[in-house]
């Protein structure tokens, strides 16, 4: 098949593009970075900032839209430009594609949802502390209206080889050999290995008669403490995890956010309320729908050492 992959210069999109090419597909890769800035060679790569609008592109059978602005801090208009307007541009550019797959996120689930074995039918969009989540939810709705036949995948905490988010952020939070983590570590999380997400993407492309939204995870939940113990045991740098009560972390994050709003530093606070809720609260997914309708069968987990 001829498949276009957006966001290919990033961690998730690049891995998807390479995996699809290895599987024998003709892949057209698109990303914001210039070709000279790439750290790996991508198939048929073209530099495209989706915020600039639609482009002329070759005809393809399927599109995997993985381009997104991801984060827990920043201006709403910046997130909207990529996650909302950029999604419109991708839909217009590949309007004739037979298959459209959007890589979204479980962050879209409303703050009102108790995030324990969450179903895809749970409310979305009411995310007070995350412009990323709000704009991704809006992007999903645009895809549903424009392409009712589309597949929307919602992974949570994507990790894997050459991770540019999880491990760097953990290491960047260390202070004097200690890693402060909000909560007590007992809350369970669903996480998604990058290769499992690739499996879901491939199943979404192949299942031409299936549409809708699907949670994607490793299928094995774990406590934050267990996840951290597993990850840190593989690092050569000794680190002691220090759990900070949720209420204390939330109050500190509120102060940090207020300070950053008054300042000019665009890198974001050391800690945000969005990050506190992600680390200190339960966040597990029901993936029955993906297993049954997409025949999704995850193969990897954080225990496999593939971090």
Keywords for this structure?
globular; two-stranded parallel sheet; 35% helix; Rossmann fold; 307 residues; seven-stranded parallel β-sheet; alpha/beta; 13 strands
Can you describe what's shown?
With 307 residues, the protein is of the alpha/beta class. It has a domain of 204 residues: NAD(P)-binding Rossmann-like Domain (Rossmann fold, 3-Layer(aba) Sandwich), CATH 3.40.50.720. The chain contains nine helices and 13 strands. Strand 1, helix 1 and strand 2 form a beta-alpha-beta unit. Helix 1 crosses helix 5, helix 2 runs parallel beside helix 3 and helix 7 packs antiparallel against helix 8. The longest helix has 18 residues. The two termini are 30 Å apart. The mean pLDDT is 91.
